[in-house]
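Re: that chain you flagged

S.,

Sorry for the slow reply, it's been a week of failed gels. I finally had a moment to sit down with the sequence you sent. For the record, here it is as I used it:
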Amino acid sequence: MRKIKHLSFVSCVVLIFLSACGSSENTTIKVGEVTRSLFYAPQYVAIEKGFFEEEGLDVELQTTWGGDKTMTALLSDGVDVALVGSETSIYVYAQDSNDFAVNFAQLTQTDGTFLVAKEPHPNFEWEDLAGTNFLGQRKGGMPQMVGEYVLKQHGINPQNDLSLHQNIEFANIPGAFLSGDYEYVQLFEPTASVFEKEGNGHVVASFGEESGHVPYTVFMSKQSYLEANKENIEKFTSAIYKAQQWVQETDSAEIAETIQGYFEDVDLDILTSSIERYKSQGSFATDPILDEEEWNNLKAIMEEAGELPEGNISYDELVNTEIAEDVINN
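Prediction finished late last night. Pasting the structure tokens below so you have them in one place:
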């Protein structure tokens, strides 16, 4: 017994020594997410399952509420990494920024919004939107651009064929839909399912199923930060990849239980059904690589919306796939 106690004491001394030498200290990375959404489930899984910690990282997550605010935080060094639509990196690049944002890890690969109607429409057709009062998303943002793209694919001109409203702040859209006379709205999960459960709306279609693969939400950093912190960004991407694989292999109920703390006001059954809805339509990227076909699809959507800046929007400059490829291969 005395021998065991002695070994325990020695182990404690070794642990204290290692701690004092700094070998157990993690590197902090500040992340700004454009909104809080179940759409970003793999990110929360990476935190809760300890995948970042396994890589020697501490992630400080803050919600920055909107693409413009998120990019302002990134460019002003308020955050090190931004989780936001990749269209924002194109807008910054087009302004001839000396230190533009580079996309290095994709998290979602479809649009994440659903078309919600105030009244039931069991036999809904996209053409039913003509002449209606439609509450859209912010002009120039991915939800609105994809929404317009899908409508046009179904022969509906958003500016001429319906009454389109885009003057509501992102965070206030659900409340505005409830209190206003809007007939349709684009909503993310779990808000769409909450509306259904409470009888305040009915999900009639998915924009994600209609639009195909796009780099909808991507982790990006300033060029200078990537160059100075490549090893840490590789570790960050590795943690995200582990989470992506775990989400693919795990049932929706377990995922919901794992990340429930990020959505304390939402019932577990709603979280589960919302995650399943995203999984079933392939919204969560299975790896962090943003390929050129997805990038070109994004540019086509932006061009259709009249939001693609002139000039060469270079995939090679704005997208770094080497980090993700190294993570996957190793």
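What I noticed first: The radius of gyration is 22 Å.

Talk soon,
D.
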